[in-house]
Amino acid sequence: MGTNKVKIAITDRNKNVRNLLHREFLKEGYEVLVITTYSEVCDIISNRLPCNVLVLDPEFSQDVAPGEFDFLRDNTVPVVVHTSFPDEWTNKVGKSITVVRKENIENLKEAVRKAVNIKGFEDGCS
């Protein structure tokens, strides 16, 4: 990466939460992409839109059924699944960490820090 910044992509169904996460992760020193469409998620997983970590709210789009995320089983980008229903997402995503949605986002920040350091993904973004 030319900027030496870790690039993360975030999704969330709520625009205000997306904006909050964007601000908070910028403060943490990350380069942040705000993702709003299913096709952008596909671009990240296929490395057409490079990033180091995807923060995924699986309910971010009304147009996406849960089964449509099956392609995440073979992901090359670590995924932090940010959900109110963690049991539904256990073992559904390859390289991933599942985080329960809470008022305090410190647990999400910690999960992103861990995901950045998943072995083999330190240089996941060019």
Radius of gyration from CA coordinates: 13 Å
CATH 4th-level superfamily: Response regulator
Tally of domains: 1
Strand order of the largest sheet: 2-1-3-4-5
Structural account:
With 126 residues, the protein is α/β, with parallel strands linked by helices. It has one domain: Response regulator (Rossmann fold), CATH 3.40.50. Helix content is 25%, strand content 17%. The chain contains three helices and five strands, in the order βαβαβββα. It has a five-stranded parallel beta sheet with strand order 2-1-3-4-5, sandwiched between helices. The termini are close together. The C terminus is likely disordered.
Q: What features would you highlight for this structure?
A:
Rossmann fold; globular; 25% helix; 5-stranded parallel β-sheet; 126 residues; alpha/beta
Please give the structural blueprint:
Elements: E1 7-10, H1 15-27, E2 31-34, H2 38-45, E3 53-56, E4 79-83, E5 96-100, H3 106-116
Parallel strand pairs: 1-2, 1-3, 3-4, 4-5
Summarize the structure.
The chain is an alpha/beta fold and 126 residues long.
